[in-house]
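Q: Protein A?
A:
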Amino acid sequence: MKVTDPIADMLTRIRNANSAGKPEVSLPSSKVLAEVARVICEEGYIESFEIEDSKPQKTLHITLKYGEKHARVIRGIRRISKCGLRIYSSADKLPRVLGGLGTAVISTSKGMMCDRDARKLGVGGEVIAYIW
């Protein structure tokens, strides 16, 4: 099945699995999806991710993270820049998710990174998603 927006599909699969309390999510992999997963993992919202080299396409396995008594770490996840409307932000106007409690995933000229790293480097870019 061909997906029009793979990033939105990835975020929806994570959101649904998180709501259902599933330990792992599997989806078709790409370089962009692996980078988004890397940023989310570095920020501590998921336990880990790995890319399985299978045929006909690589598969991305994401292990979700839960707290004590199976409390969800990811409270919300939302796609911001869509196929029909791209949202860009300059370095000085990068968004703060929940006043800094959440994270914005930004695609910059220096690679995919969180909003805090982009502010430190002084680069702007496309706002991919919010996660809190």
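Q: Protein B?
A:
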Amino acid sequence: MNRHNSRPVVLCLSGHDPSGGAGLQADIEALLAQGCHAAPAVTALTVQDTVNVSDFRVLDRDWVLAQARAIIADLPVAAVKLGMLGSVQMVDTVVEIMQALPGVPLVCDPVLRAGGGGSLGKDDVGYAMRERLLPIAAVATPNLPEARILAELPEGTADECAAKLSAYCQHLLITGGHGDEAEVHNRLYVRGGDCHTFTCARLPGSYHGSGCTLASTLAGRLALGEEVVSAVRSALDYTWRTLRDAEQPGHGQFVPRRLPLDFCS
């Protein structure tokens, strides 16, 4: 039997998207592309397609804890990526899981709305994330609408949201692309005042799973030992390429192409 050095393991706590565009499938594909091993633990089941989400069900916390504990007992977890949690109870469950992983970087993608606008959790979930998860996260990756929910600033700019949220989080990456500007500006805010801006060309169309792709890639880069600013740049570059090469498998949004066509050949 051939044995190779183990790939870094990333524990993914997120929801299942039956369309395959977002959620845990997006995490798995993006992490494979980084040379990492994804260990997916399901937090919620959703009814959604590439257009929008119509319903969801959060799993019982004991099931989620059991999944995570089985992974932690068996595999050397090098990073954790959060996606859809869906309830305050699930936020508390993640906090408990992270207590068993001291020093392991956590990437928090605060999934509160689907790409089509449908809710994936009540507003109190956003408050719980801000108060309990952002302080233990290495990086949080909200888009601007999510940052506004977290900061409780319905019309706030990225800078205004960051001014409030940076008090909770060491690194805050607020992604752009929700306006009509020709270039997309993604801003990494570091507690203490530093800000790094990453600019890319706007691509036509709308995309299903771009946030999941970015956050899981970032977790993978951190698991590989990359420094935060460099890891953010790597994750943004990779995500942009997956959107550039995206395909439209159904009647809704485009889905990022996270793996090359010949990946399994």
